[in-house]
Amino acid sequence: MAYDVAGVRGLYTSLSDGWTYLNAHDTPQVPERVASAVARSFRMACGVSAPELSRGIHTRDRVGRPEGDAFVADARAAVADLAGVTPERVLLGPSLPALYLALTAAMRPLYRYNSSVVLTNVHNTQLNGILERADAEVRWALADLATGELPAWQFDLLVDGSTRLVAVPAAHAQLGTVVPVREIGERIRERSRAWLLVDASAYAPYRLLTFDDWEADIVAIDVAKLGGPQVAALVFRDEAMLYRLEENVLTMPISPGLAGGVSATVEHYASLVEQQNGRRSRRSRLVDSMGEASRYMEHLREDVYTFLGTLPMVHIVGYSGEAAEHSNADRIPRMTFGVTGVPSATVHQRLVANGMIATETSISKLLREMGVEEMGGAVTLGLSPFNTQADIVQLTRTVASLA
């Protein structure tokens, strides 16, 4: 079993337009399998299946019900396979902001006088803003300004018996730094019964997601960040947690047509490498497929950091500089960089002129404190399963031409 990048590229018909896409962090490409599944689901969602002529113990009891109901159930099962859990622990919603807003409202019974929540400045600003609405004191865990890493030790000081919720991302969406979720979870367990909420949206496209490895209570996944439809999910540690919440607040409808593309998205990631013969579960195939894809993209990540990092005028945020040179930070294949003396708009325009799609960095408070504004802005790159070594060479030559 080997990773065939040419075969993977064939799964994305959008790549035939000639652009080199390096913007998976912002607008991931949609696999043809997913686009076709969504189109088919919208056509079929309102239809009703014909009744089966014979009935037995394996007959589906769906007579007279729209096909769209099955699409939603299939979407829950697909997210469950992605996270390595059972479907009963999966709650679907139209977007992560909508689910975070519903969760904040549903957790009202858990908050008491002098309750607290712990947030981090490496998390999505919009999602942090929603969680700040909780009726509780907000405490902040801060990233290292040299590397962008989130030290786990500070949670010893921030979490206590009053803490009800701790929210962290599994990885920073722009810097690529991976958060030590398990260590944070262990420290929380020693001091509190607070729930740990982990946003895995940036992490899931690159590495196998296994819920139980993180000591988390809730894992959030935005399927759109994997190149899927606009559907999101919250995955709970166990069903009993739902009984402690205002469940009617958490219940929200999603489009059956969009839900029909979730299973295709997970199936896509389970099919990135050629599988062995025999009937195997989707989770088992995901383990093998994502393992090979992760190793391949890790090699690309090392190359892009090495090649761009050797250009003297390039500053990779959280990686370049004396303060960060001894860091062994774990990273996913994303990076944010600037070119000394060259505005980020100029860097971006040069990339586009050479057929490469990246984005000018959206500057958060953390990136501002790390000096991104002072160096004239930055450009963010996000690699995908279809990127190649040739893409990295083309990128390096283009950036080098700005010197």
TrEMBL record:
Keywords: Aminotransferase, Transferase
One Pfam family this sequence matches: Aminotran_5
InterPro entries cross-referenced by the UniProt entry: Aminotrans_V_dom, PyrdxlP-dep_Trfase, PyrdxlP-dep_Trfase_major, PyrdxlP-dep_Trfase_small
Presence of keyword Amino-acid biosynthesis: no
KW ATP-binding (keyword) present: no
GO MF annotation: an example: transaminase activity
Residues annotated as domain Aminotransferase class V: 71-240
Name listed for the protein in its UniProt record: Aminotransferase class-V
Protein species of origin: Corynebacterium glaucum
